[in-house]
Amino acid sequence: LKIKAIALLSIYLSWGLILVGLAHLVHHKKAQAAYGRHIILSPLVRTVPARLAWFLQEMPAFLIPLLLMQLPHKPSTMGKYLLLKTFFLHYFQRTFVYSLLTRGQPFPLGVMVSAGLFCSINGFLQGHYLLHCAQFDDKWSSCFRYNIGLLLFYLGMAINVHSDYILRNLRKPKEIVYKIPTGGLFEYVSGANYLGEIAEWLGYAVATWSLPSISFFIFSFCFLGPRAYYHHRFYQEKFKEYPKSRKALIPFLF
Q: Is 31 a residue whose pLDDT tops 60?
């Protein structure tokens, strides 16, 4: 009974992610997350150093699946491998590598707490489903969908990490300025880092083919897509020499 209740909770959480993502997509003009270049500072806004904020908010998505692996309930072997190869790998990089290298602005405390809450819920959702609910047959690892999904995930992660490297090196340590990024997919889109992360979660959804992973992809697209658009508009307004052929998120299209 308890297992069925938790499985039902996973379904509700998945649909909740989809609805929240779609709501953000519809109302993004009023709901753009106020961090980075979109931050609105005032004496009433408490902030947290960027490195500490990224570390604390990303940690739950890494730690909760790790704790779920320690439960006495025997996990799905394929689910465990998929979790380690994709979701777990991404959040290890975000928690222990990206957070220590970032040169971003301080985070509003409220944004950090909201992001940490999301990572906690999503870490439980993805970890619980792949470890304790997913049923993969013996041929899953040899199927076309699995391999295409993993290929897309790793390609997206490479784009994401490389794009973050480019953005990070536009600044000197302790410098808070914005410059035109060049190189990699930034030659084609303003949100190359977001394109990479969206590709990651699309690949993850294809490889696992489950409601929780698809809901996470939809949420990510609905949140990161508008953010890429606003970054693109920011560059166009700030730099008169900004390349006119460069798109916001999808090369040559949008």
A: no
* 147 vs 242: CA distance, rounded Å: 38
Which tokens hold the place of 34?
A: 């106020």
- SS (HEC) of the chain: CHHHHHHHHHHHHHHHHHHHHHHHHHCHHHHCCCCHHHCCCCCCCCEECHHHHHHHHHHHHHHHHHHHCCCCCCCCHHHHHHHHHCHHHHHHHHHHHHHHHCCCCCEEHHHHHHHHHHHHHHHHHHHHHHHHHCCCCCCHHHCHHHHHHHHHHHHHHHHHHHHHHHHHCCCCCCCCCCCCCCCHHHHCECCHHHHHHHHHHHHHHHHHCCHHHHHHHHHHHHHHHHHHHHHHHHHHHHCCCCCCCCECCCCCCC
In a 13 Å sphere around the CA of 138, the CA atoms on its Cβ side amount to 0
Contact 150, 203 (CB under 8 A): yes
pLDDT per position as a tens digit, 153-174:
999 999 999 999 999 999 887 7
Q: pLDDT tens digits, residue range 202-221? A: 999 999 999 999 999 999 99
